[in-house]
Design goal:
There is one protein chain. By secondary structure, the protein is an alpha+beta fold. It folds into two domains: about 30 residues; about 90 residues, Histone H3 K4-specific methyltransferase SET7/9 N-terminal domain, CATH 2.20.110. It is built from one helix and eight strands. Strands 1-2-3-4-5-6-7-8 form an eight-stranded antiparallel β-sheet, with no helix packed on it. Strand 3 and strand 4 form a beta hairpin. It is extended and about 55 Å long. The termini are far apart.
Length: about 130
């Protein structure tokens, strides 16, 4: 009799684990909401904002950041440079909220990977 109770309890724990696992996947992977507030954010120039406070001003292709543009982060930093299919690519500059800047050339970047910075200038402060 103890064996059947233990099996039922293990089954309930397993089902709860699976439910929590899939719920956490859903919550962690849900994308931030964004909206086009000005211009053509499908194929042209426009301004897109995100619900977390970020903003992008620049070129779009097929609804993705593509070409030159500036992304303003909610923490006060910004990236100004080239984009390809919604990812930073090529020449660009990072401006930090503490006044320092970093010039970069990004060879490859993809979601979930770190930037490969092949060129950078020394950090400098604003005048």
């Amino acid at each position: 009799m103890n064996i059947s109770i233990d099996l039922k309890f293990d089954r309930i724990k397993f089902i709860m684990f699976i439910n929590v696992f899939f719920l956490s996947l859903f919550l962690c992977s849900s994308p931030a909401y964004s909206s086009c507030i000005k211009g053509d954010c499908m194929n042209g120039e426009g301004i897109r904002t995100w619900d977390k406070g970020a903003k992008y001003i620049g070129n779009f292709k097929n609804g993705k950041r593509d070409g030159s543009g500036t992304h303003f982060y909610a923490n006060g930093n910004k990236y100004e440079g080239n984009w390809s299919s919604d990812m930073k690519s090529g020449q660009g500059r990072l401006f930090y909220d503490n006044g320092k800047t970093l010039e970069v050339k990004i060879d490859q970047i993809s979601r979930g990977q770190l930037w490969k910075i092949t060129k950078h200038s020394s950090l400098a402060t604003k005048n």
